[in-house]
Structure formats: C-alpha cells, structure tokens
Design brief:
23% helix; five-stranded mixed sheet; alpha+beta; 27% strand; 283 residues; lpxc deacetylase, domain 1
Length: 283
C-alpha cells in the first residue's frame, strides 16, 4: 500500500491497483461504506471494495491530511500491529505540503444521535473536535473504561495512535473456526481472557481498549469528507453505529454547515502542531 499526495479538494480515495476490468477507484466517504463485520469497508458502484480502512483513515485525520490517493494491491489495508502508529510515523517522517486552498470543516449546529440497544453515538456542537467514549466488557482485563479528549494540537498522535485493536480469546477462536482472522496473531491485537492479557508485553496503556475505540471513531468520522467541529460521544459504539450517525447527520441539513476555517479554527483541527517527538516509541 502506498499513500500519494493529492491536490486541494481531492479528498481521500483508494485505488485497487490489482483491478483491471472495472472502476478501481473508491471514495473514502460515509456513503461508500457497506456492511462488514468488525471493520469499516467501502465499495464503489462496480463492487470493488477495500476493508479495514479505519486505522489509516484515523492516521490521516490525526495528522491533518485531507487529500490523498491510497494505492493498494488487495482488498484489505494491512493491519500492522493493530494500531495506527506506523502510518503516523510514515506521514510525519515524509512531511506535509500546505495547499493554496481554504481549509473547510463541518460545523455541528444541532445534536444528532443514533442508538442500537445499549449502544449510542452522538454529535453535538463544540468549537473543535472532542471525542468522548465509554466501553464496558465482562472481561476484567477491560471492564468499564471511559475517556474524553480534545483532539486539537496533535492529541491523536500523542495519546491514541499506538493503541491496538483488542478482542477476547473466545472471539478469536470462534472467528478462526469460521475461517476468519486466519492471519491474526498476538502481534497485531491485544487478546484478553478474563482478567489476563495474553499478548506479549501486556498493555501499552492501562486504558488501551477505550483509546483504541477512540482511534476507530476518529477514522470513521474522517469519512465525513472534512474535519468535524463538534463533540462526538460514543457509548459501546462501533464502526457501523458511527457510520449510521454520519448518515443521520447528512440527512438533517439543519444540523450542520460547511465553514471555511480562519487561522484560529484551523489551528484547533487535529494534526496541527504535530512533531516527531509526539510519536510514541512503539511506532
């Protein structure tokens, strides 16, 4: 997979370089998302898809990159270590080019919320992007965790980008029995069993699980097509529910507006002010 720079207003697109007989470009947008298990998957009108895009999308958003072409020669983004740290390290090492075009963002004007059972996701007005998340699992190694962060000034890189995806050992065994996650290992996910963390080296953060859910949320919110100025609150929410929230938002025109950011607003967007020393040692 290779990430290329793109011109202003281009947005984020994936290109399946292994496809030759159909349209191989797929827009990284909320309305390209299709139903998938345990990840975010996008698909174009010709049925060409790319899955597990959430971590690279989070890295792009967290580094303030809004225009890019991602070439990939298969149907799934590499999982790497289960976090976004390696993507972030690559973007920061290569640097960014400021384009001669206004920065636009989506300002939330009214609260929008979606629910499914005990899970909920909400967007409400705020002067910059905040992510507030709460999870609860029976396994004592995770339990109940909550965290809220202002995503301005490189917060994603410092606080979230190295947090890995997590799962229960029973879930891994069930997926493998169904022919899924055959390439998965303790090197690309945090695996827990009751109160035990089975992955070598243990946790990177005591609350790594909720941090990873916040990472996923940023990646899924990046599919809005522009940075969001608002507060996202997720309770037991996953990829599908965050996409449902974006669909509800764009179905309610009074709930948002596209704004051109002045310097003060631009400086509050995720990715502004990121430095090499912000990158965790794991990257």
């Amino acid at each position: 997979m290779t990430v290329h720079p793109a011109s202003a207003e281009y947005g984020i697109w994936f290109c399946r370089t292994d496809i030759t007989d159909r349209d191989r470009l797929i827009a990284a947008r909320w309305d390209s998302v299709i139903e998938a298990r345990l990840c975010t998957q996008i698909e174009n009108a010709d049925g060409v898809s790319v899955s597990t895009i959430e971590h690279v999308m989070a890295a792009l958003a967290g580094c303030g990159i809004q225009n890019a072409l991602i070439e990939i020669d298969g149907p799934e983004v590499p999982i790497l270590d289960g976090s976004a740290a390696e993507f972030v390290a690559g973007f920061v090492a290569r640097g960014q080019r400021r384009l001669a075009s206004p920065v636009r963002a989506i300002e939330i004007l009214e609260t929008v919320e979606v629910r499914e059972g005990q899970a909920s996701a909400r967007l409400e007005p705020a002067d910059t992007l905040y992510i507030d998340f709460e999870i609860e699992f029976d396994d004592a190694a995770i339990g109940r965790q909550g965290k809220m962060l202002n995503m301005a000034n490189g917060t994603f890189v410092r606080e979230l980008c190295d947090s890995r995806t997590f799962c229960r050992r029973a879930d891994v065994e069930a997926m493998r029995a169904s022919g899924l996650a055959l390439g998965g290992s303790y090197d690309n996910a945090v695996v827990v069993d009751g109160d035990a963390v089975l992955s070598p080296g243990g946790l990177r953060h005591a609350d790594e699980a909720v941090r990873h859910k916040m990472l996923d949320a940023l990646g899924d919110l990046a599919l809005a097509g522009a940075p969001i100025l608002g507060r996202y609150t997720g309770q037991r929410a996953g990829h599908a529910l965050t996409n449902k929230l974006l669909r509800a938002l764009f179905a309610q025109p009074s709930a948002f507006r596209m704004v051109q950011c002045d310097s003060a607003r631009s400086n509050r967007l995720p990715g502004v002010g990121v430095h090499k020393h912000d990158i965790p040692a794991h990257a």
